[in-house]
Amino acid sequence: VPLEAGMPQPFDMEQLFSASAAQYQLPVLGETPSGEPPDPKKCSPREYLEFYIFPVLLPGLAALLHEAEKEKCFEGKRNTFIASDFLTEWLYNKNPKRKDESFTELFSIPFVKDWLKDHPRPPIPLSLLISEEEASILIQSFWRGYRVRCDSEIQELRQWQKKLREERHINKVVKEFWAKQEAKGSVQEG
């Protein structure tokens, strides 16, 4: 058996996209294909997708793409937009079973609350929370501090302070000082 026989072959892109564009029209929310809906427990996977999943999911994906464009996700910069959060909130609020209920934010959705109790999210990185200008100020101030600390006179001063702390047991002296201060305060109150 030739080795190539077991290898997956590349897709013929022209054949893949040769179907008419009308076949790929996004359905309107809640709009199902014409005809009687099949029994969801007995229908084929394709019928189930076409009648029960795509009429809700595809408009949600279209809304997701519009929101991602608004959030400038396609510009190549990192951002705080989380597509799965948006889609979860959108699908929950557009669920036909919740037709008459008010809008619910993502972190107020019951199953999301339950999930986050057991799986807390890590904090959002500072780089996504501050602007480029604020980040540049932080970086520049850190760099200036580093350059100052590298100065030989500053190094000498830091070494002297360290030696002084060790020789005079400065930590012990400070603790004794504050103990005396607290003792004075309790005598004056009494």
Automatic annotation (TrEMBL):
PROSITE patterns attached to this UniProt entry: IQ
Coiled-coil boundaries: none
Source superkingdom: Eukaryota
Annotated PANTHER family: IQ DOMAIN-CONTAINING PROTEIN K
Name under which the protein is recorded: IQCK protein
Origin species: Dryoscopus gambensis
